[in-house]
Amino acid sequence: MKVLHVYRSYFPDPPGGLQEAIRQICLATQPLGIENSIFTLSPRPEPHRVHRPESVVIRRRSWFELASCDFGGPEAFATFRSLAQQADLIHYYFPWPFADLLRLAAPDKPAIMTYVSDIVRQKTLAPLYSPLMWRHLQAMDAIVYNAPNYAANSPVLTDPRLANRVHQIALGMAPDLLATRPNDDILQRLDLAPGQAFALFVGVLRYYKGLHSLIEAAASLPYPIVIAGHGPRADDLRAQAARLGVNNVKFAGPVSEAEKVALLRACQCFVLPSHLRSEAYGMVLIEAAMHAKPLVSCDIATGTSIINAAGETGFVVPPEAPPALANALDRLLSDAALAERLGQAARRRYNQLFDGRAMGQAYADLYHRIVRPQA
Fold first, then answer.
1. Closest Cα partner for 216 from 253, 235, 244, 251?
2. Given phi > 0 = left and psi -120 to 50 = alpha, else beta, which region is 14?
3. Contacting residues for 247 by C-beta, under 8 A, at least 6 apart
4. 3: Cβ–Cβ under 8 A, 6 or more apart, which residues?
5. Which among 132, 316, 150, 322 has a CA at the least distance from the CA of 225?
6. Contacts for 351 with CB less than 8 Å, ≥ 6 apart
7. Is the separation of the CB atoms in 301 and 282 below 8 Å?
8. CA 326, CA 191: separation in Å to the nearest integer?
């Protein structure tokens, strides 16, 4: 079966959690007879076709970005229509309003959507977008959500118009990632001594990641806090750390896969302080759990609190509460035995709920259920 995945950006452009989720879905369904391809936009789409282990990536130019949404031109519509004609099923990822427009040019093919996040920030544009959004949603043969608590608090997923087409499939990650050889040079670059206790954040430095609270929390901690990644908030966060005189926050910048693995292996705990529901799941929490690391996250009624079970795999604190965040980090960084116990529980929870092989089987089964009636 040929499945075309559709999202606004993908590797080799700078990564994010949703791109990693798409990669994991492709990797997990590939052994089950699914031939995956990915259509995306890029500000620099040369080469236009990128062959990766999980799929071929077909890229067209992003003409401009509006409200965190990339838009393409006529060549994007033509390429998408050609790819859709060759596919047995189209797999969209929401939100990406330009994909709603692309669908209008698509041939009549079975289609599903993975609903990742409500539209949180662009509330003033939401009424204008709503008719197009609902036309797209109601055209789907199935809509997949990832976490039950997120769905229960989503005004879209709880809408009666979608009652008969929503399904839950938890996102997961393949354990093969643990085989990546680490590049320990990054520990020396960040002046981290062997065996030194430190907390780690990895991700794109976006507005909803709550990193301003992490920097405030770091001011009351004697331990290093490593922030790995880059993004639109990088300069603001460095300026905040300098203004507060916080010297224990180490900005690693963008890191390679091998450097990320080295940091995950060496850290004593992992922190994801996202404070808004734009952080709908938290794939990086699964990755940290695979490495048996205890987790610290915020209670924002999303998948982060499904991956990180409060008191079992780590601590869940109120959003934008630096004292509570600092207390949780201090407990883990000052008590290696506690960190080890909760980290092993995180690994067991990964094994039970977030192994990518179960996710791949669930998606492959859904693809076949939808396509067979069309055959």
1. 244
2. beta
3. none
4. 29, 34, 35, 36, 37, 87, 88, 89, 90, 91, 367
5. 322
6. none
7. no
8. 22
Q: What are phi and psi of 71, to 5 degrees?
A: -125, 140
**Residues sharing a CB contact under 8 Å with residue 50, sequence separation 6 or more, in sequence order:** 11, 12, 56, 57, 59
Distance CA 341, CA 312 (A): 9
Q: Are strands 69-72 and 166-168 parallel, antiparallel or unpaired?
A: unpaired
Mean pLDDT of 195-215: 96
Tokens representing 289 are 């759990």
Q: Match domain 2-174+355-374 to its CATH number in 3.30.70.890, 3.40.50.2000, 1.10.3720.10, 3.40.50.300.
A: 3.40.50.2000
Place of tokens 């915020």: 298
Which range (125-139, 211-225, 299-313, 321-335) has the least confidence? 125-139
> How does the average pLDDT of the chain come out, rounded?
92
DSSP state of 353: I
**Measured CA angle at 207 (ends 154, 218), to 5 deg:** 115
pLDDT tens, 253-268? 999 989 999 999 999 9
**Cβ(288)–Cβ(346) below 8 Å:** yes
Least trusted range by pLDDT, from 65-79, 118-132, 223-237: 118-132
What's the whole-model pTM score?
Answer: 0.85
What distance in Å separates the CA atoms of residue 198 and residue 225, rounded to the nearest whole number?
6
Maximum Cα interatomic distance, the chain, rounded to a whole number of Å: 64
Structure tokens at 109: 């093919």
Question: What residue spans in the chain does CATH classification 3.40.50.2000 cover?
Answer: 2-174+355-374, 175-354
pLDDT confidence of 92, banded at 50, 70, 90?
very high
What CATH class has 175-354? alpha beta
